[in-house]
Amino acid sequence: MIEAKADGRQPPTPRAGDEEQSGRIVNLMATLRKARSACGEDSGDAEVHEMPKKKTATKTTKKATA
pTM for the complete prediction? Predict the structure, then answer.
């Protein structure tokens, strides 16, 4: 197919029955739920906690030298 395109020819069309098997389709959400339940995590909502306030650094002023 690449050689045909490079030569400027029409690439060959696939014949019926030549389709490759694409593999099985996986439901990602179902797999995630299954993995979480296997780890012992419940499927409930997560708890939300308020983050502690950050302490800001205190600014120091330089003394003027005379």
Answer: 0.30
